[in-house]
Design a protein that fits this description.
Blueprint: E1 13-14, E2 21-22, H1 23-26, E3 31-36, H2 43-54, H3 56-61, E4 64-70, H4 74-88, E5 96-98, H5 103-107, E6 122-127, E7 133-139, H6 147-163, E8 165-166, E9 177-179, H7 185-191, E10 197-200, E11 203-206
Helix pairs in contact: 2-4
Length: 210
């Protein structure tokens, strides 16, 4: 059965470019982004890993640790690192998991046989500090992911956890938010003393809490 939102992220131990990693130990007290790549020495994957390396400070700011994965062996990962730095202008600064036996790929359902029965699709899992899966994304091998969008979603998830607000369509940091329906008006008065605009009883717009 496919992993679903709210499930506990399965633990695993695997070799990586930063040594042996256990997911639950690695992510202890932090958010984790686990994302897979179809294959080493491929063009789209090279651009993605370079982009994530350039965004590492943004992930750090949000208490997020990133983990890449492909089904190629560790020796290929280590050889590929030089190409990433040369072509993308940024060295790999996060672990890249080696999964040649496809243990992690199968555990997380990263191989979709009707697309390719041996290589991983572009899967993304966002895991919170309680080890719960909060977001899943699946892209085809031919399409590079938008990691700025991933940061936006993490901002939204963290805002919801802290302030009980949801974020509307196309929300960006600093935009108005929506008070979640489970918060009554009485509770909202305490939580949002500056007030809010009520378009409908279920649509209460409030300035982004800080």
């Amino acid at each position: 059965m496919a992993l679903q939102l709210g499930d506990t992220a399965p633990d695993f131990t695997a070799e990586s470019t930063a040594g042996k990693i256990s997911l639950h130990d690695y992510g202890s007290g932090s958010w984790v982004v686990l994302f897979s790549h179809p294959k080493d020495f491929t063009p789209v994957c090279t651009t993605e890993l370079g982009a994530v390396a350039k965004l590492k400070a943004e992930f750090d700011k949000r208490n997020v640790k990133v983990l890449g994965l492909s089904v190629d062996p560790l020796k290929d990962h280590k050889a590929w690192v030089g190409d990433i730095e040369e072509t993308q202008g940024c060295a790999l600064n996060f672990p890249l998991l080696a999964d040649p036996d496809r243990k992690v790929a199968n555990l997380y359902g990263m191989i979709h046989p009707n697309a390719n029965d041996t290589l991983t699709v572009r899967s993304v899992f966002v895991i919170d500090p309680n080890k719960k899966i909060r977001l899943t994304l699946t892209y085809p091998a031919s399409t590079g992911r938008n990691f700025e969008e991933l940061l936006r979603v993490i901002d939204s998830l963290q805002l919801t956890d802290k302030h009980k607000v949801a974020t509307p369509v196309n929300w960006r940091q600093g935009d108005d938010c929506i008070i979640v329906p489970s918060v009554s008006n009485e509770q909202a008065k305490e939580m949002f003393p500056g007030g809010w605009k009520e378009h409908k009883p279920y649509l209460r717009v409030v300035k982004q809490p800080h």
